[in-house]
Amino acid sequence: MRMEHSTIQIRDGRERRGRVGAGLILLLRSAIALAGCGAASSSRLVITQSTDVTSGPDHKGHLAPGAFAGITLSIRNTGTGPARGLTIEDVLPAGFRYYELTTLGGNAIRTAVSDPAASGNPRWGTFTIPAGTATRESALVISFKVQAASKPGDYQNHIKVVSSTAVELDQGDPVALVIEPRPALNLTTAATTAQVNTGGTATYVVSVANVGSATAKGVAVSVSLPPGFLYQATSAYEGNSSRTQSVDPPAGSLLPVWSSWYVPGSANGSPGSLRLTFQ
């Protein structure tokens, strides 16, 4: 009877220990489940654009056709988790051309190198921007140069961000640029004959072409003659320019000067023109 009672106690004790172990496993599983229900970390990207172009009263950057401009993109992670697998693409305004990268800054981690192609929108990859802290901002900063379009008008620069993880994105305001109409003068000079006899007369033609989009005002023409040559007279004024002041060089000038004209801008593919023929 004692041995049987003893066996029953041992079995009962094992069963109790088994139940306690199962209870611990259940408690651990419950703790893991509760931890999984906590707030998940997330990333939030805030984009800020700026330019080095001088701003006008309209708070837009004003520049000449074909001029170079600097653009800076600041992408800050204000969330609680890192933003991973980021590719940044600058969507250039129509007619603009990417020129070069000037700086790549911030504390972002570059996990793979992908740089802009020779043409098209510039694209950089691949980055991870850590979550910021209370004392340190976490950001990726990209500065680069572009060449403006040749057509006057209002333009805006936009950003496209691709991420391998879900992110909240605040695009901010685009960079606003105004290409102003500007004159652009091309000057050519040619002699009508390749050779001239001593004491003879040489005929020169000076051509001014305004290939820009605005009228060139107050245009004056000055010619530096070769040694031994003296200005005699002007035989023709041609082109669609309008003369606003009649100043002609005197005979015998070494440095003849003519003024002044308004040379109109290019229209329908044809430049404004002024042509002087003199001996």
What can be said about this structure in brief?
Helix content is 13%, strand content 46%. The chain is mostly beta strands and 279 residues long.
The SSE order reads HEEEEEEEEEEEEEEEEEE
Helix content percent band: 10-25%
How far apart the termini lie comes to: 144 Å
Helix/strand class: mainly beta
Q: Please tally the β strands and state the result.
A: 18
Which stretches of 5+ consecutive residues score pLDDT under 50?
1-39
Question: How much of the residues is beta strand, in percent?
Answer: over 45%
- What does the main sheet amount to? 6 strands, mixed
Enumerate how many helices there are, as a single number: 1
Shape: elongated
How is the largest sheet built, in terms of strand order? 2-11-9-4-7-6
**Rounded mean pLDDT score:** 87
Q: What is Rg?
A: 38 Å
Description:
With 279 residues, the chain is mostly beta strands. 13% of the residues lie in helices and 46% in strands. It is built from 1 helix and 18 strands. The strands form 4 sheets. The chain has a 6-stranded mixed sheet with strand order 2-11-9-4-7-6, with no helix packed on it.
Sum up the structure in keywords.
6-stranded mixed β-sheet, mainly beta, 46% strand, elongated, 5-stranded mixed β-sheet, single chain, disordered N terminus, 279 residues
What does the secondary structure layout of this molecule look like, with pairings?
Layout: H1 2-36, E1 43-51, E2 61-63, E3 68-77, E4 83-91, E5 97-106, E6 109-114, E7 123-129, E8 139-147, E9 153-162, E10 167-170, E11 175-179, E12 185-191, E13 204-210, E14 216-222, E15 234-239, E16 242-247, E17 257-263, E18 272-278
Parallel strand pairs: 1-10, 2-11
Antiparallel strand pairs: 1-3, 3-8, 4-7, 4-9, 5-8, 6-7, 9-11, 12-13, 13-18, 14-17, 15-18, 16-17
